[in-house]
Amino acid sequence: MREKAPEDHAVFFFDGIDHATNKKIAVSFNNFMRKHHWGKSCANILTTPFFCDSEVSPGIQISDVVAYCINQRYVGRRGYIEGYFKMFRDLSFTYQDPDEGYNMLGFQLIPPEEAAMAPPEEFEDH
Predict the structure, then answer these.
(1) Contact 91, 76 (CB under 8 A)
(2) Where is 22: in which H helix or E strand?
(3) In sequence order, what are the residues at sequence separation of 6 or more whose Cβ sits closer than 8 angstroms to the Cβ of residue 43?
(4) What's the pLDDT tens digit per position in 10-37?
């Protein structure tokens, strides 16, 4: 990121819990970014995180669900999560430009006609 867009900065958003907990997380994150050698090496990340309520922010809700599915899969609790994990993985992409040594990770947009579809039959029981 630093080479391709040196003027851009990444921002961390956390799902807000309560004021006291949010403050502890913010202080810990800020200390990591300013005092730890790994944090200090991240010049293009804002050192102050932002908090929002996932109950009213659809983007944060989606991030929570995806993070939960990924975490559950990698700690060995696959079960019905595996189907959702595979759907999320199929939406991810990696763009690589070998000439410039540039990689970009992200998610594909879901076409509107697919977004309106019902979940696959294998998920209807859950």
Answers:
(1) no
(2) helix 19-35
(3) 2
(4) 888 888 889 999 999 999 999 999 999 9
